[in-house]
Amino acid sequence: MKRIEGKTALVTGASRGIGRAIAIELAREGAQVAVNYASSEAKAKEVVAEIEKAGGSAFLVKANQAVAKEARAMVKEAAERMGHLDILVNNAGITRDALLPRMTDEQWVEVIQTNLNGCFFCTSAAVPIMAAQSYGRIVNVSSMNGQMPAMGQANYSASKGGIIAFTRTAAAELARYGITVNTVAPGFTETDMFAAVPPAIQAQIRSKIPAARFAHAEEIAKAVLWLVADGDYVTGQQINVNGGAFMP
Ligand SMILES: NC(=O)c1ccc[n+]([C@@H]2O[C@H](COP(=O)([O-])OP(=O)(O)OC[C@H]3O[C@@H](n4cnc5c(N)ncnc54)[C@H](OP(=O)(O)O)[C@@H]3O)[C@@H](O)[C@H]2O)c1
Predict the structure, then answer these.
(1) Domain-by-domain residue ranges, the chain?
(2) Which fold has domain 8-241?
(3) Is 92 in the pocket of ligand 1 (CB under 6 A)?
(4) Both ends of the chain: CA-CA distance in Å?
(5) pLDDT tens digit string along 4-37?
(6) Which of 63, 96, 100, 116 has its CA 20 to 30 A from that of 54?
(7) Catalytic residue among 37, 156, 177, 233, which?
(8) Phi, psi of 191 (to 5 degrees)
(9) Model pTM above 0.85
(10) Using a 6 Å cutoff on CB, does residue 124 contact ligand 1?
(11) Distance 92 CA to ligand 1 centre (A)
């Protein structure tokens, strides 16, 4: 028996990187998965094809989660197509790095709007659906950089710290409806997002990680799977998957 057989899941930002790995992992363990993307349609189609090739079930849902209407319509569409919505993984995120003296209002607003507000838009749309089922598993992907200083990422770290705080209050409010809300906080993970960091800085960062390497997206996905498959009495918590790079 697969671990989440019969469950349904929506994974935001599942066309690439960590979201892709999460979608594939949840599908491998039996969930039907709605694969969200904003612009990388071809990549998202590859994810659906990979899931189907392995015998799983998945379909595409296009939406820019920074736009409230689109995010909410996506959640509704996913729930309607699957008949119910058991799992929401708020994974989509962006960076627009600049040191504070050079950070523009646009960079600040775009990151907060996408990462933090987008997480709220999707969650608030999923809550009535999950509450009516008396069951829901919400996992928000935050970041190590939401818990410690991150040079050039005042906008990003604020968005991720916001997600951590949001998770705790949402967990406290929603436990009575059978909904758990947790966060997985990756450290530096080998994806397109991290590939944008210059190699010299990557080497500097790696030298400070006790595990002496970056994470693979699949290692983040395993923590998400554990929360949704086995974390029935776990809510308002955070799993740090960072190779020991930050120990709160
Ligand atoms: N990589 C790391 O080192 C690291 C560390 C800590 C936390 N994280 C977090 O992990 C999550 C995934 O990161 P990643 O490294 O996998 O990033 P990535 O490789 O850049 O992929 C980002 C994903 O988010 C989607 N996305 C971006 N903006 C969107 C929007 N407005 N609406 C819907 N989807 C959107 C992208 O879809 P399209 O391609 O279709 O635009 C893509 O699927 C993010 O929340 C990130 O902050 C990453």
Answers:
(1) 8-241
(2) Rossmann fold (3.40.50)
(3) yes
(4) 36
(5) 999 999 999 999 999 999 999 999 999 999 999 9
(6) 63
(7) 156
(8) -140, 180
(9) yes
(10) no
(11) 4
98-107: pLDDT as tens digits? 999 999 999 9
Distance, CA of 177 to CA of 64 (rounded, Å): 28
Kindly write down the DSSP assignment for every residue of 174-232, as one continuous string: HGGGTEEEEEEEE-SBSSHHHHTS-HHHHHHHHHT-TTSSPBPHHHHHHHHHHHHHH-T
Ligand 1 in reach of 13 Cβ (< 6 A): yes
Q: Which of 61, 138, 60, 66 is nearest to 96 (CA)?
A: 66
155 Cβ closer than 6 Å to some ligand 1 atom: no
Residue 53 makes CB contacts below 8 A (sequence gap 6+) with none
At 199, list the tokens. 């190699």
Task: Look up residue 38 and give its two tokens.
Answer: 């904003």
Return the structure tokens found at 163.
């997600």
